């Protein structure tokens, strides 16, 4: 049963009215004075009937502790006012006679003293019944205990701006209606929360064991980004006593993407989670300002396919990201460590204080949990302590030695002059020796430590590629002589220009961890990586080492792996060698695109050399993707403008023109700037996405984003069937629209599957 004709509609409307007013009172009281509560209550609930019917709630409120809420709780309650809850569950617990009525919302509201909940948080254990429980006998787990009961009602509420529009009683068969409505909406250019329509398979991932890493291979539009954010929200809720949100981290593919997800964060209560990119994180962790030549490589590969240089570029990237470098770096680091084994004992003057054997044993074994330079610091402190302890003893020994000699001299021989001379010499020697030993005590440690010169991370990194013979040796047969030479030459050429590539960052981070360590504040308790398919093996490994935890949520789609020359082509290696505790899940259902668009995009997957299962769109129909022969110059701009005007009339709000390369996009932007009356915005890596302007975006930057309508344009650059990268880029572009897709080009063949 649905709509406003529902017999309970009026009653629910009243309940909503009460809840809203009630929230207002709580907010007002929390913000002003707790003593004002009764008066605030009377003022708001001047309707006597309501007041009486609400007496049970009233009694909850007399407890002053109720109002002690944190600033964050207050903020969330204010947000919740517009839509306090989205569902209701009626549950009769086993062994009880009275059913419980639970209203599920984004944030909870309850009496802290008697635990009676007015609104139950969607992340609480009992709320799982909304996502997974069928009507009838149900159970849920909380604190390792299982609770059983009978679920007699599952009701959804459509509340808009605090107004109840509709109520709907649901069972498994009807849950899709709300989802369909939500998917049919227009995109706002931003990611939003999906709390009321989370699907069962998605819910399983959000609530999967929080003490284990999780890897999700999900089709384009299957909700990976959304789920990852909801999982963080769930984590924060579950561990609110143990961790602050600042201890969690989201690694996004670009700053553009961070801007894109930013709107969903406050609603989910995760806005304080650190959000950064891999590059920015590494540069902070190694504390270096390096010049990184970024996606140049992708662009080069795109613009010069099958070129000899492109092949070399791709090979260099893949080798630097591969496990071969784990081996090379491990050997290299071992060599650096050995170069720190002292050749001499630690002596002060003639006293041997600390043997080199003991030093090496501490350095190698006892402190092996520390990075190299921290071990040195520790050892320096050990020697310093030792010296401080033995200092007086050494001085005493010298004093005793000379005092004994002087004493003995006093009784020696008969010549008083000689005796006097002898004693005077001994006294002089004593003074000299004491001065010597005091100086030695002062200088011995700094002199000893000087044999361990402090070098920078960049120094060590450059050294790694300074000698091809060494590099080949450390690779233990994985690099041929030719390959070792090519790699060293390539790196040296970069270094001469004082440049580094993104692929260098993982290796530098790995070195940093082992040589200098990562500051505590840059470690994280839980990390979410979106677009994880674009990370290399070494990037993921170095991150795990740097962050000192395997609590990662990796979400990605290998079919969209446009950086697979450096990234991953399978999750196997990652699971086996980096995250062996990980749970692996696949999502094949796509929620973004219509059936018509997804079917066309699926044709591209069939052309890829790996077998990707077809993406199953949630059944939502729309217009078929359309090819339009494009005109030139001003006429082409008019053509697009007419299309945009038409789409806007159809109420589509967000529209993007996607070109294959940045070069084509720049040409497009130029054309529009010259001939268009409407403003357009060319999106680059660092941009913010404007809300009401049509955007031009290159295919590789469009990854992860979505728009109501997309126009893929081939101006000078076409997509080639021969290139795996082109197939993936076109796939990325085709899976961006929610509703409409157009291809504008000279020839249909430029779009491979037309
Ligand atoms: N359960 C759901 N209810 C409503 N909307 C959903 C649901 N799951 C996903 N969506 C919507 O589907 C779209 C795609 O979600 P999202 O961007 O998280 O997918 P993705 O897997 O990260 O996609 P891509 O691989 O293309 O980056 C978004 O508009 C999201 O709001």
TrEMBL record:
Binding site for ATP: 218-225
Transmembrane stretches, start-end: none
Organism: Cytobacillus eiseniae
Highest rank taxon of the organism: Bacteria
Full protein name: DNA helicase-2/ATP-dependent DNA helicase PcrA
Leader sequence residues: none
EC number of this enzyme: 3.6.4.12
Pfam families the UniProt entry points to: UvrD-helicase, UvrD_C_2
Enzyme class: hydrolase
Molecular function per GO: DNA helicase activity; hydrolase activity
Annotated ranges, domain UvrD-like helicase ATP-binding: 197-594
Taxonomic lineage: Bacteria, Bacillati, Bacillota, Bacilli, Bacillales
Keywords for the protein's UniProt record, in alphabetical order: ATP-binding, Helicase, Hydrolase, Nucleotide-binding
């Amino acid at each position: 049963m649905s709509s406003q004709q529902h017999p309970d509609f009026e009653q629910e409307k009243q309940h909503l009215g009460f809840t809203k007013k009630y929230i207002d009172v709580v907010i007002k009281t929390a913000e002003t004075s707790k003593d004002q509560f009764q008066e605030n209550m009377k003022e708001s609930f001047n309707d006597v009937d309501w007041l009486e019917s609400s007496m049970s709630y009233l009694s909850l409120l007399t407890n002053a502790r109720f109002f002690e809420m944190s600033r964050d709780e207050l903020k969330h309650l204010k947000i919740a006012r517009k839509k306090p809850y989205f569902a209701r569950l009626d549950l009769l617990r086993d062994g009880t006679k009275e059913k419980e009525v639970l209203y599920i919302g984004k944030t909870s509201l309850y009496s802290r003293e008697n635990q009676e909940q007015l609104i139950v948080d969607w992340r609480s254990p009992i709320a799982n019944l909304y996502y997974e429980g069928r009507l009838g006998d149900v159970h849920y787990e909380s604190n390792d205990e299982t609770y059983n009961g009978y679920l007699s009602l599952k009701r959804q509420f459509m509340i808009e701006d605090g107004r109840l529009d509709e109520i709907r009683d649901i069972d498994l068969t009807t849950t899709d209606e709300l989802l369909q409505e939500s998917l049919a909406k227009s995109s706002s250019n931003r990611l939003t929360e999906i709390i009321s329509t989370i699907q069962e398979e998605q819910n399983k991932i959000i609530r999967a064991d929080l003490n284990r890493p999780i890897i999700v291979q999900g089709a384009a539009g299957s909700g990976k980004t959304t789920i990852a954010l909801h999982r963080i929200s769930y984590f924060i809720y579950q561990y609110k006593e143990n961790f602050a949100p600042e201890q969690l981290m989201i690694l996004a593919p670009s700053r553009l993407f961070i801007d894109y997800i930013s709107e969903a964060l406050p609603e989910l209560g995760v806005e304080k989670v650190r959000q950064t990119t891999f590059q920015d994180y590494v540069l902070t962790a190694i504390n270096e300002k390096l010049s990184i030549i970024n996606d140049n490589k992708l662009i080069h590969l795109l613009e010069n396919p099958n070129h000899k240089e492109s092949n070399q570029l791709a090979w260099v990237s893949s080798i630097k990201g591969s496990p071969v470098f784990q081996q090379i770096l491990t050997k290299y680091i071992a060599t650096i460590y050995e170069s720190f084994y002292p050749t001499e004992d630690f002596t002060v003057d003639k006293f041997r204080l600390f043997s080199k054997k003991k030093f090496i044993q501490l350095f190698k074994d006892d402190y092996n949990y520390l990075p190299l330079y921290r071990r040195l610091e520790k050892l320096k402190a050990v020697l310093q302590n030792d010296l401080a302890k033995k200092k007086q003893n050494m001085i005493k020994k010298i004093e005793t030695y000379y005092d004994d000699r002087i004493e003995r001299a006093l009784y020696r021989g008969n010549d008083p002059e000689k005796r006097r001379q002898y004693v005077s010499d001994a006294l002089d020697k004593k003074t000299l020796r004491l001065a010597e030993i005091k100086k030695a005590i002062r200088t011995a440690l700094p002199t000893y430590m000087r044999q361990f010169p402090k070098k920078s991370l960049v120094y060590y990194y450059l050294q790694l590629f300074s000698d091809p013979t060494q590099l080949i040796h450390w690779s233990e047969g994985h690099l041929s002589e030719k390959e070792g030479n090519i790699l060293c030459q390539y790196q040296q050429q970069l270094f001469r220009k004082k440049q580094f590539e993104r692929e260098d960052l993982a290796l530098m981070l790995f070195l940093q961890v082992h040589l200098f360590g990562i500051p505590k504040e840059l470690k994280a308790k839980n990390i979410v990586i979106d677009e994880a398919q674009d990370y290399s093996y070494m990037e993921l490994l170095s991150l795990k080492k740097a962050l000192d935890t395997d609590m990662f949520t990796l979400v990605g789609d290998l079919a969209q792996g446009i950086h697979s020359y450096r990234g991953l082509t399978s999750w196997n290696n990652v699971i086996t060698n980096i995250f062996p505790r990980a749970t692996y899940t696949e999502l094949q259902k796509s929620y973004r695109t219509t059936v018509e668009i997804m079917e066309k995009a699926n044709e591209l997957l069939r052309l890829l050399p790996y077998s990707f299962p077809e993406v199953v769109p949630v059944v939502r129909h729309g217009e078929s993707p359309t090819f339009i022969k494009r005109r030139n110059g001003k006429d082409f701009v008019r053509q697009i403008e007419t299309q945009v005007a038409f789409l806007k009339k159809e109420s589509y709000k967000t529209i993007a023109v996607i070109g294959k390369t940045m070069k084509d996009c720049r040409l497009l932007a130029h054309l529009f700037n010259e001939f268009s009356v409407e403003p357009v915005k060319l999106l680059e890596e660092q941009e913010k996405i404007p809300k009401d302007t049509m955007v031009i975006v290159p295919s590789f930057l469009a990854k992860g984003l979505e728009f109501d309508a997309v126009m893929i344009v081939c101006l000078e650059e076409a997509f080639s069937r021969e290139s795996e990268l082109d197939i993936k880029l076109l796939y990325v572009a085709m899976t961006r629209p929610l509703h409409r897709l157009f291809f504008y080009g000279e020839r249909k063949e430029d779009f491979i599957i037309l």
